[in-house]
């Protein structure tokens, strides 16, 4: 096959694939946008059509104002939960991954067992509520943060462990001879070197926690603690007749991941495919 | 910039990893200010012994004294030592300046003191223009010097080196050998240096420790080891090309092993001790290395002077210089 | 005297405390509470009653069956489509990078948002999908409101949202295959079709293991998509274990909900552990 014919062929496959992908993967997002800028009456028709009357700002303001600015509160809560949980996942996960990789011992089997359980086993929700209540953490943002940490640790530890195995032990030893305590070796030598995985972890876990619906549904009921995904779910019944506002809300929760995706594409790919090549 | 210095004394040091004993009882005195080299084949325990002295590994039994102080249970940072790693182990996220000053900043020294000490070390090692670079942007030789700089600023009494030159090319290695010897003279500190390169051992050492299978085979100055090796192992290890070693009986001697160095053999036509066929000739200019096949003994290497070129395939007579033969062990 | 290790175990402590109290402890406790009638304060031991009830009530049994169908349909489709898309998107086609992003982006989007959007798109009379099918003369079904179809429609949404992750993992797996294998097989005269079956499929196995395992686990645990679209309906036709658990929890049957949890736990274990074991065993044979 000549090179030129080959290139033409590649382009044709590309065009066909592009058309298919557009219909299947892009149209739903275009639809969200179109619905979000329509009037109430037009949105109720569910049509895939150009809005006759644009109402972008109006809808945006209406959604934000709904139920006494609930969406703003939800964004605040979701941000607090995400930032808090991710910060702990980074520090705790890296500390465990570090000891796990550097210090072989019988305990490692126990830790690997916990990681396997953490990745696989669905959380026992009602007993978890019972524990949270006992600790006074049920329906509290702190409780929610700790839950996200508990559920995200296994992935975090695995990711850090495999990265730490690429950092030569000589560095730890040089620091030890330089007089560093274990704490200083970790925070001044190892942790700064983990920056690439840490960025990956932050991005991937932030998206997961921000998008989480099930856990806040169980552990964070109540108006004052509402999160972004819960608001969306609650508005589903409230906006039965105002689909324009419902879709404006969807648009608003889709934008943060879109921005993260645009700026951190490489890290997301690294995080999502970690371990794919080696089982 | 003369530093304090201390002797290192090892008493019956042993080290096991699990069930495997790697260091099998080592007694050694390294005098203050001495340049001591550990040599031996791969896996004989050189690095392990060095790491025991540094405190990175714990001894299974035995006592380590540095400067007359028992440091067997002391932390590495409390032993007055500094170490240069084979990989250099420079912190990749820190500049050369911060790499050299890292230990001092951990010790919470005043900023001015750190600056001054780093500047002095950098000056001595010609690193001043590189101080703000990251290790990634340095050549192998420059990294090596940063690693040494990091050791110097700690004012250690004892420097430990684990094959510091093995990642450099031959020319740079020769240059660094000289620089390290200069440094040793200038600082006067004790240096313990691991290598498996016998040229490094011979050229730099005041004292060579030959290790074999976790034990000391022989300790002595380079010329002592060359002139009076106690065993075929040491004899074969020191000197280049290697000493010719033969079974005593085959060589017609009343000993277990008979040895003769290539430079102590001469090619001769009249009354040769052995006669062999020339298999290969290496011309080095000043010398010619001749490889002979001697019936009953096997290969024999002869270092002849540069004027002699026996033809490959021809027959050659060989005789040892008197008084230069080695006979090891009683006949079996 | 033993000196302290430079890698002290207390580094593990913060993580261990959180994980043990909020994950392990409830998991272990769930075995006990599943044997009780429980209102979060008092637990009355009732033996196997909750489990008996679980396997007697037809809608609970259906939830169990639906879970299996849902997990295997979504996992199978994601694996097959993911591999095909990955092969297509590593062939150097036009706009490849953009296409990869387009396929992957739904993975990052809120499941609830996706669910609501598709509920609108799949509306039986007004939905864009059926209107589109009408244009080419087809009569689209009542995707989410037909009891026979609802579960599969939800699975379709799940596949749409999740296939990008499978594709991404396969792309990484394909990138790890040396091009020399393809060159060698081409010299041996293999067709593209033969190359796919004889080179790509066997050598991309580690990625397949990851995709199958991840998608099966997430399929068995799936809740969000279902809850955002059908809430298990119509009737109980699209209920899965996770939604059953939530419904029992809402109704205050905490013991029963916990029994459902234990069943889900056991189900995942007996499917995933042998699978992992089998995959690992095959790995050594290679
Ligand atoms: N941490 C360890 N655990 C178990 N065995 C070890 C460990 N470190 C070293 N050994 C073993 O101890 C023996 C001596 O190792 P060592 O690194 O001291 O050799 P070496 O003389 O430095 O060799 P080389 O010239 O190759 O560097 C080897 O058999 C090695 O496998
Ligand atoms: Mg070594």
Fold topology:
The complex is a heterotrimer of chains A (279), B (332) and C (286).
Chain A: H1 3-36, H2 40-43, H3 56-102, H4 107-120, H5 125-135, H6 141-164, H7 169-177, H8 182-193, H9 195-211, H10 214-219, H11 228-238, H12 243-272
Chain B: E1 8-17, E2 20-30, E3 35-39, H1 46-54, E4 61-66, E5 69-70, E6 81-84, H2 96-106, H3 111-124, H4 140-152, E7 158-162, H5 170-187, E8 190-194, H6 198-204, E9 207-212, E10 215-220, H7 222-227, H8 232-237, E11 244-247, E12 257-260, E13 265-267, E14 274-283, E15 287-294, E16 298-305, E17 315-320, E18 326-328
Parallel strand pairs in B: 3-8, 3-9, 6-7, 7-8
Antiparallel strand pairs in B: 1-2, 1-4, 4-5, 9-10, 11-12, 12-18, 13-17, 14-15, 14-17, 15-16
Chain C: H1 13-33, E1 36-38, E2 43-45, H2 49-56, H3 58-88, H4 96-104, H5 111-121, H6 128-135, H7 150-175, H8 179-187, H9 192-203, H10 205-221, H11 224-229, H12 241-250, H13 254-285
Antiparallel strand pairs in C: 1-2
The complex binds adenosine-5'-triphosphate (ATP) and magnesium ion (MG).
Describe this structure in words.
- The complex is a heterotrimer of chains A (279), B (332) and C (286).
- Chain A contains twelve helices and no strands.
- Chain A is mainly α and 279 residues long.
- Chain A has a single domain (57-274), classed as MetI-like fold (Orthogonal Bundle).
- The longest helix of chain A is centred in the first third of the chain and has 47 residues, at 56-102.
- The model of chain A has no long low-confidence stretch (mean pLDDT 88).
- With 332 residues, chain B is of the alpha+beta class.
- Chain B has two domains: 8-233, Rossmann fold; 253-328, Beta Barrel (OB fold (Dihydrolipoamide Acetyltransferase, E2P)), CATH 2.40.50.140.
- Chain B has eight helices and 18 strands.
- A six-stranded mixed beta sheet of chain B has the order 6-7-8-3-9-10, with helices on both faces. Chain B has a five-stranded antiparallel beta sheet with strand order 13-17-14-15-16, with no helix packed on it. Chain B has a four-stranded antiparallel beta sheet with strand order 2-1-4-5, covered by helices on one side.
- In chain B, strand 15 (287-294) and strand 16 form a beta hairpin.
- In chain B, helix 2 (96-106) crosses helix 3 (111-124) and helix 2 (96-106) runs parallel beside helix 4 (140-152).
- Chain B is elongated.
- By secondary structure, chain C is an all-alpha fold.
- Chain C is built from 13 helices and two strands, in the order H-E-E-H-H-H-H-H-H-H-H-H-H-H-H.
- The radius of gyration of chain C is 23 Å and the shape is globular.
- The model of chain C has no long low-confidence stretch (mean pLDDT 89).
- Chains in contact: A-B, A-C, B-C.
- Bound molecules: adenosine-5'-triphosphate and magnesium ion.
